[in-house]
Write a structure and sequence with these properties.
Seven copies of one chain form a homoheptamer. Helix content of chain A is 9%, strand content 48%. Chain A has a single domain, classed as SH3 type barrels (Roll), CATH 2.30.30.100. Chain A is mostly beta strands. The first copy, chain A, is globular.
Chain lengths: 79, 79, 79, 79, 79, 79, 79
């Protein structure tokens, strides 16, 4: 009955996601990949700090820095 | 005799839960999923900081950020 | 000869316990369950901060946040 | 030739020990039990902060919070 | 369908990468090697702090200090 | 060709060692024992803080608190 | 094609290396040994703080405290 967290991640691949990080920054980007440690690959990524914004392009994020990930567009319907 | 913590989590699926996080924020949302690391999927989530509130929709929360989870409505009766 | 910590936890089930957490807060509640990570289920829980007190009802606490747990009433006599 | 740390712990069971914790507090109490994570059971425990002292009775301490443990009385002679 | 994070790292070998570290510093350098802990070998590395910049040459970076890695030049086309 | 760190520890048993800890304190004492987590047993230990010094006698130190250990006297010659 | 981080460490044995630590200090010394946790043995070590410098001789450093290691002299040519 439950949606496992890792399954949801797979269902938002190719969508734009927003991440809150432990150091207070926020990243957003299109989710290209993920592994079992929640390490992520983002494309067209932006970093948003309290007073800054910068474009980072494609990047790898270590999963241990993540607090939350949300996908405003929502996951694709279950097949 | 004891209620194992993971069992209680399964019994509050689909209910609204409130989470206190290590960074001082509070999240609430409907619990859609959970895994063995206490990674959670929440729906209709809200974040409440000391001076802020924002709607986050569906999100994934890494379990390592959680201090406590409570379900005001209480778990369903044991079957 | 020694009392293993996990055994003592099992012997205070159903009793009221007080927890000191790493973030400086204190929680108390009736201990309903425990697992091998010292994740706990509490009932009728209260949170006591330096200037606050609030009722939380039933909750799950991740064991990694705990410094100490004590049971003012003491464990039941060994069978 | 070496005294393994865990062996020394077993040899000070039933003695009064003093613990320095990572959050700056100091605990003392009679050592009733220990496990392989250095989780401890103390009896007649006192907490000593920079400006406070309070009696805690019997408690469980998670080993990950410990910096040092010392037994002023010294371990019993080796059998 | 997904690009695993570790695969992307292998595809930017020999390219210049920029790293954001947990302590707020930024490092850049040419990526010479990587292992499964995301420990990295960089050549011609520079450190950029809020007010400092220094040349470090070839260095080893422990992966646990990394928040993000990005490769401005982008990965080579998939073979 | 290399001297493994754990081998060096075994070769300074019974010697006086000085430890720098993560919380800024310094401990010194005669090294009586060590295990694979770098948990240590020290005898005749002293703690030296920025403004304090106190005698601690025999103690157990959890290895996870250690930054460096040095043995001013140097290791015994290799057999 | 890639130079694994641990291989590079083995190729700078006997050379002088400089280490940046998580607590902001810097250590340098001749690298005598290393293990799989990146625990290191240094000889003729110096510690350099923002306002201090002291000679430490031979020491053991726990790898978990390391951010970066660099070898100004560079690794020996590959055999």
């Amino acid at each position: 009955m439950a949606d496992a967290p890792v399954r949801l991640l797979e269902r938002v691949l190719q969508q734009r996601v927003t991440l809150m990080l432990k150091d207070g920054r926020e990243l957003s980007g299109r989710l290209l990949g993920v592994d079992e440690h929640m390490n992520l690959v983002l494309d067209d990524a932006d970093e948003t700090g309290p007073e800054t914004r910068r474009r980072l392009g494609r990047l790898i994020l270590r999963g241990s820095n993540v607090i939350t990930l949300h996908a405003p567009q929502g996951p694709a319907a279950k097949p």
